[in-house]
Amino acid sequence: MTILGIETSTAVCSIGVVGPDGRTSERSVVEARIHSEKLLSLVREVCAESGIALQDLGGVAVSLGPGSFTGLRIGLSSAKGLCMALGKPIMGVPTFDAVARAALAEHPGASAVAILVDARQGDWYRGVYDRRPGNVTEREAVSVRPLDRSLIPADVPLVLTDAPERIGDMSGAECRHIHPYCRGAVVAALGRERLAAGRSSDLVTLEPAYLKEFVVRSPRPEAPVAR
Predict the structure, then answer these.
(1) For the packed helices 184-196 and 95-106, what is the interaxial angle rounded to 10 degrees?
(2) Is the separation of the CB atoms in 158 and 172 below 8 Å?
(3) Phi-psi sector, 87: left (phi>0), alpha (psi -120 to 50), beta
(4) DSSP classification of residue 151
(5) Which residues in the chain are classed under CATH 3.30.420.40?
(6) pLDDT tens for each residue of the chain, 227 residues long
(7) Of 78, 138, 141, 203, which residue is most buried, by most CB within 10 angstroms?
């Protein structure tokens, strides 16, 4: 069974597929505010490279957040549109689950990873994951917290963030940018596991995991021009 994965929770727009033999194909673009323009083009490219028609997909997995409000809405609405048109199941995948899986696969010596993403207005999305035999497990629920040194446990050797220049000196952990680990192919792999376990999502009620309220702020008034 081949699963399509969609990742749009950050400035990365990544589309991947995982085939029945475990082989993957992936296309990613890193540029803010281009997800709606690039997403379906990347879907076509990945499917063409894999030699699979959309109708032959077994389902679509989509990253649910936390992350960019706009990016998450675009990814989920696109995934729902594909599933409705094709009559395929949809699988919602927590963003940090996929990021942690990608990171610990690339860093086999790391026993755990902390993920910190700027949630604006002084808040940060934070998740911590441990490597277990044959698996990656969430140490505690992903939360929204203010930035301080307690966000990075002392026993965590690897940190992923969208602001390494701010986080890098907060601990002795290796600090890397999160973007290379936002991967559609990993979302697809986790989605396939969920589908195999009978854990597909409800197409109508599935929503992004925003974790905090979306606040619309009015622009500040311009200062009067001195004459």
Answers:
(1) 110
(2) no
(3) left
(4) G
(5) 3-94+182-196, 96-180
(6) 999 999 999 999 999 999 998 899 999 999 888 899 999 999 999 999 999 999 999 999 999 999 999 999 999 999 999 999 999 999 999 999 999 999 999 999 999 999 999 999 999 999 999 999 989 999 999 999 999 999 999 999 999 999 999 998 888 999 999 999 999 999 999 999 999 999 999 999 999 999 986 544 444 454 444 44
(7) 78
Q: Does domain 3-94+182-196 have CATH number 3.30.420.40?
A: yes
116 contact partners, CB below 8 Å, separation of at least 6: 124, 125, 126, 147, 151, 152, 159, 160, 161, 163, 167
Residue 145 contacts residue 127 (beta carbons within 8 Å) = no
Q: Which CATH number fits domain 96-180: 3.40.50.300, 3.30.70.930, 3.30.420.40, 3.40.50.980?
A: 3.30.420.40
H/E element, 179: none
Question: Quick one: tokens of 175?
Answer: 């600090």
**Spatial separation of the C-alpha atoms in residues 165 and 127, rounded to whole Å:** 19
The answer to whether the beta carbons of residues 113 and 104 sit under 8 Å apart is yes
DSSP assignment, residue 201?
B
Q: Which residues have C-beta within 8 Å of that of residue 145, sequence separation ≥ 6?
A: 123, 124, 126, 151
